[in-house]
Design brief:
The protein is of the alpha/beta class and 840 residues long. The protein has 18 helices and 43 strands. Strand 17 and strand 18 (497-498) form a beta hairpin. It comes from Dyadobacter jiangsuensis.
Length: 840
Amino acid sequence: MLRILLAVFLILAQFAHSNAQKLSTSKPWTYWWWMGSAVTKADITAQLEYFSKSGLGGVHIIPIYGVKGYEKVAISFLGNQWLEAMQHTVREGKRLGLGVDMTTGTGWPFGGPNVVAAAAAQSMTIVDGKPVVKPTGQKVKRAAPGGEGLVLDPFNANGMAEYLSRFDSAFSKTSEKPRAMYNDSYEAYGANWTTDFVQQFQSRRKYDLLSKLSLLNDSTGNSEATLVKIDYHQTLAELLLERYAKPWTEWSRANGFVTRYQAHGSPGNLLDLYDAADIPETESFGTSRFSIPGLRVDPDYSIDQFGTPNPLAMKFASSAANLSGKKLVSSETGTWLANHFKVSLSQIKPQIDELFIAGINHIFYHGTTYSPEREGFPGWLFYASTNFGKSSHFSEHFPLLNRYVDLCQRLLQNSKPDNDVLVYFPIHDLWATKAKSGAGVHLLEVHHVDRWLLDLPFGKLSERLWKEGYAFDFVSDLQLKKFTVEANGVLNSGNATYRTLLVPSATYLSGETLKEIERLANAGAKVLVDGKLPTTVTGNVNHHERQKIFSASLTRLSSLKNVKVSSDLNADLAENGVVREQLAEKGLTFIRKKEADGVPLYFVANVGNTFREGWIRLGRGGHLFKSDPLRGVSTLKARGSKGNEEVFLRLLPGESCFLTTSADGYDAPEVSDTGQHFDIKGKWELTFLNGKPDLPAPAQLTALTSWTSLPDSAEYFSGKAKYRITFDLPGPIATYANAALDLGDVREAAAVKLNDKDLGVAWHIPFILPAGRALKAKGNILEIEVTNLSANYMRLRDQQQPDWKKFYDINIVDITYKKFDATRWHPMPSGLLGPVKLIY
């Protein structure tokens, strides 16, 4: 009997193990705001089940401010009830195959009730040449119950350890823990000092700051003042790395967590700070200005206020990961793409493609809000996010976006970088300029990259490399120490290799960094300097003597055959074996990687309006296949001799694909475009299927226009309607064997049937689906179910029932951070706007 019981136990254990859900990082994850932490286990489970069915891979719990009327059921952060809710989430996540991350705090940035005044952020101003130090007084922004309090001083010697002691106590009581701890972007506004700053400056910079303090306010360009400013910023950067980023990461790892870190916004060197984390995380805030035809940008979005996403800023996170061999690089994705209730899947996809191109491979949507199941539409919403939750107007088609992200990230996460150029980031030149941020410090934010990146020679050089088709990463002063040189002159970080070290035109360089460059050059590394060598060593102490040593080192360096001050960068890069990809010249964006066996892998996105199809030469050529994550794999036509091959690529604006020598996957339906098309016109039958506030009357249309122009309640309708038309094909059926159906302008997603055969769902630009295999000569029946935005319904809802706006703190605001009021909106175009045609 014992043997039988043992055998049964083993069988059950094996069955349970084989059926256990595995954590997926290739599927996109989402921020999940717990408003007031007024959560229940039943609702947590219900929402996790929705996330799982939608194709998400995990959630990130962020407790924030509460909801009016729910004060009695709010749960205090890190209390026993909160910890049990968190553990329930982790347990249910394991059951459903969902990972769970959490912020090491509530709201942002780090701070809370256990941050005493002595450990809170400090600000220093100079009055009559002396420091006047005051607390910033900043409190945790958007704090949840139990998380309120002062913001932590990020430079304090013992601040992080004291802050984390609260979490030590809490987690000692838990058996289930999240995968990762998260640290949001810096946002410690005005923080530029700490209690022992003078002593630390003396120890690190070897002179008394107080005797030179007035020079920090100098605006005359005094050379000594510039050196002091650089030394001041260098000290802040070191303290931030050593006392904030590293202790938090070390504590997290010791407690079994990995770390996701948004270093941007800080006064440190982003490359070093991102490097300290297990998963560096950037942010895509707002809408990029892509020239994809038909792609909408919310006219209310303020570039002056928020800036626009920039792939060069994103590359700081991916560069740090590449150099350190980190598999995952994440992004806060979709923040303020457009106003509430106005974001479509077609707007989200190109923003994600831009992230992929910049080296990001672990998408976190921004985001979803916990909302009780009994709450009516629109439920609880976070003030700054795109709604990716159950009440979103695109929830039915959300799995399609998630499958696309999943398929892309599987390849991106399981391949290695293949970049030729290592670009040194001369941060000292930035520190030498007047800070455009507050408190006299440079904050390296992702929102306004013009304030710290684009105006520098480094930024201009990086933009040129990006636009001209070079594959590159950035490297910091500290990271240069990781590199060795292989026999062929290739730079090797231990995780990534590069053919050239490129030093931008710069004025200032530290003596230590010059020694590192000289070390690498002496070992055979190929070094290019763009335009001119640096002229001035950093560090104010003994500057005259150190400048002599620096100049002598520069002379030695520039005399080496493998070091060149370049006046023709393209030619010199080519001489060093650097590949310039023709994809960029054609108007395409790309990232080049390599799979485990060295097979080249390109991800290519057409986010412009200059390329449609043509012959292209790839730097890593060969017999290539086009792998479309949405449609399958096809063979590319090729021409030319070995080493000089070209492939014929068709990629319309808004489309993306992988190019690889691997043919894994199913065959994609062939779609040809000879320039011919057949307009599908006639009498369209329009029937409203489901939605809010009620169903408008059916209509017959001879021209496709927005259904908001119809009578009845159509201008307020949010939901789904079916278009139906019958048509015959002109000419022989064989002509249309490889035809595609072009729906023109779709507001916002269209599920298409042709002769009762599903063609799929058109949810992104271009709204084109293969159709040839479903066509017949006569009596074709085309049915298109279109789902629109919820914005039009909210125009009515905000008139009739504005009581959904019941949140504390900032409540709910529009994209300009003014009080949200949808009643002032004009109707958003909705439905099938066309023209609809067959292309063949």
